[in-house]
Structure formats: C-alpha cells, structure tokens
Amino acid sequence: MTPAVVTVGHRPDLGFLVAAAADRHSAQWLEQAGFVRDDQLDLHRPRRDTSASVAERQLRDAIGMLTADEYGVTRVYSEAEQRARVENRPAWIEDGPTRTTGRTAWPELITSDVCNGHLVLLASHDSPYESRELLGRYTATGEGAVFYTEAAGGRPVYGIGRYADLDSALAAWASSGYAAQLPAVGARRSAALRSSPSRPAHTPSSPPPAAPARPTQPCVEYIPRPF
Fold first, then answer.
1. Neighbour-count burial of 187, counting CB atoms closer than 10 A to its CB (0-12 exposed, 13-18 middle, 19+ buried)
2. Predicted structure pTM score
3. Cβ contacts of 165 within 8 Å, gap of 6 or more
4. Positive or negative CA dihedral for 22, 24, 27, 29?
5. How far apart are CA 23 and CA 20, in angstroms?
6. How confident is the model over 142-196, as pLDDT tens digits?
C-alpha cells in the first residue's frame, strides 16, 4: 500500500511554514510536533510567536513521527530558499564546476552544486524506512533530475535519474504521488480532509512506533541530508 503523503513548505507570501495533512490522523501528528491548524488557510502552521529555527525543529520532529507511522512527507522549496542557499554558502564549499555528473553522488556533492547555483532543489520526499528523494533542475542545461538514496558499502549515496527537461522530471516525480507545489488553500482542501477516513492507530500522545526493517535493501540507519 502506497503511504499517504503530507506536503509541507515555506510560503514567502505568508512568511512561515505550512503543512497540508493527508488525513485527520496525520494532522494529529503535526499538532503533536507543535503545529496548529489555521482555519483561514485550511492548513497547519507554527504558532504565531514561533521563531523560524524552532519551526524548522518542529518540522523535523513532525517528519520523524509521520515517517515512523508510515506516512510520506514531501517538502516543496521556494525560490527564496534557493537564493538563501547560494548567498549563505558554507565556508567549506569552494567555487567549482558541477560535481554531480555521474550516475551516483555523495550528499556533499549535491550540497556543493546547490550552494554554487548549478542545481536548483525544488522538492524533497522522506519515506518510511529512512529513504529520501530529491527533485532538481540543472541551471546550465535545463536538465531535470530525481535523486534517490542508495547504500554503498554502508555509506549512503544518491542515485541520479536524469531527464531531458524539468517537465519530464516533474512527471516522474508526480507518478510517485509527490507534489512539486504547495496545495491551494480554502474550502476545497478542507472538504477533502474532512471526508478522509480516520486511520485506526495509536493516539498522538503516545510515542510513534519504531519503523520496521526494510526487507529488500541494506539497512541505512542514518542518511546525511544536503538540506
């Protein structure tokens, strides 16, 4: 069964993170992490007095609880976030050409390309069992790419699916049920959420269950994340 997906992202027009729950049960996990439902937006958001750093920590907590409960979480990145990555490039990243040119790439090579402006990161997806995918576009060629975690001798590495253009990459991304844009707000989304069935599961006040071991791939206990 394909996991239900929660979509999150920063809305520059509002100045804060928002999250679109997949159903009522995933909404409870968002609230457990510290988000509140905004009736006007029909989305979840941090409380109004929450700093950006605390909101990011709450989001990480929410992702951990949701993926442990076998939800997927897609994060959509704004143009402002991409500009900030280039402008606030870490000191260890040097100027240089595109480094993710092969069939696989270490996380630090992806970070280098993004912070040097060679690669625009449009979205990421966290799945149960600690797998992670990234949707990107190369600025020089317009080529699209989908990165997906693999294991290489126990060290995480990203495989790269390359596409002639961004539209082709977007189609592949959407075929997995992942969003590349934040959902619209308003009554239509609210009605869809109210009509979604409740999932029988533990209450949000209890700890999330441990993610089961993935039977078909080597166990990856920790995946370094570019972002």
1. exposed
2. 0.81
3. 142, 143, 144
4. negative
5. 9
6. 999 999 997 655 677 999 999 999 999 999 999 999 999 998 766 444 454 455 4
